[in-house]
């Protein structure tokens, strides 16, 4: 919502009530300041929520949720996990039992892997051009022998055509297209240094990565 309607709606960040006068977000157990990014009072569950008694979801409000101001952030297998107070005792007890701990770590890591796969699938793919064959920038020559070719203006005898391989940008209407761009003609058999015999350019096209 935008405009006056948004201003009149007190339930905004995390669906909690926002005080217009102070800008504070009122959770069930304490108030949160979006300006400073922290709670205004100590964590009601003490150090069970982590060393910082004023931190908000491990400083990751775009990734984690604290529904009432009492969520704890614990580390399982090197991965930070936010759990509610009612689950904290069960999780911490599990972590001291080797078999339970290992199973929990495997579960968390498997979940993180699946989330990573999902994010990778949903992430907009970048696009680039496949290389031309021969590569863009390659200079080429083609000798027009007279005869068997018929004399034509301005060269009445054998002459040499010069080309460079070009490729359209990925943003072009026809993206990543490869073609031979003619750069000139010289009299006689006169390829320039570094030129290769003429071949029809191929390759190109778009690829996503």
From TrEMBL:
InterPro entries: Rhs_assc_core (IPR022385). It comes from the Bacteria. It comes from Limisphaera ngatamarikiensis. This is RHS repeat-associated core domain-containing protein.
């Amino acid at each position: 919502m935008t405009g006056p309607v948004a201003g009149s709606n007190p339930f905004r960040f995390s669906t909690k009530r926002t005080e217009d006068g102070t800008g504070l977000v009122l959770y069930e157990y304490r108030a949160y300041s979006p300006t400073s990014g922290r709670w205004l009072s100590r964590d009601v569950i003490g150090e069970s929520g982590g060393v910082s008694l004023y931190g908000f979801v491990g400083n990751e409000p775009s990734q984690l949720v604290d529904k009432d101001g009492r969520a704890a952030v614990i580390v399982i297998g090197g991965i930070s996990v936010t759990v509610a107070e009612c689950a904290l005792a069960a999780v911490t007890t599990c972590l001291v039992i080797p078999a339970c701990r290992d199973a929990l770590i495997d579960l968390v890591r498997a979940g993180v892997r699946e989330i990573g796969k999902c994010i990778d699938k949903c992430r907009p793919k970048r696009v680039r051009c496949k290389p031309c064959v021969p590569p863009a920038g390659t200079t080429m020559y083609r000798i027009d022998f007279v005869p068997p070719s018929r004399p034509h203006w301005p060269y009445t005898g054998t002459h040499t055509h010069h080309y460079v391989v070009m490729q359209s940008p990925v943003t072009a209407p026809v993206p990543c297209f490869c073609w031979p761009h003619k750069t000139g003609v010289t009299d006689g058999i006169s390829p320039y240094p570094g030129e290769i015999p003429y071949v029809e350019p191929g390759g190109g096209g778009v690829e996503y990565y």
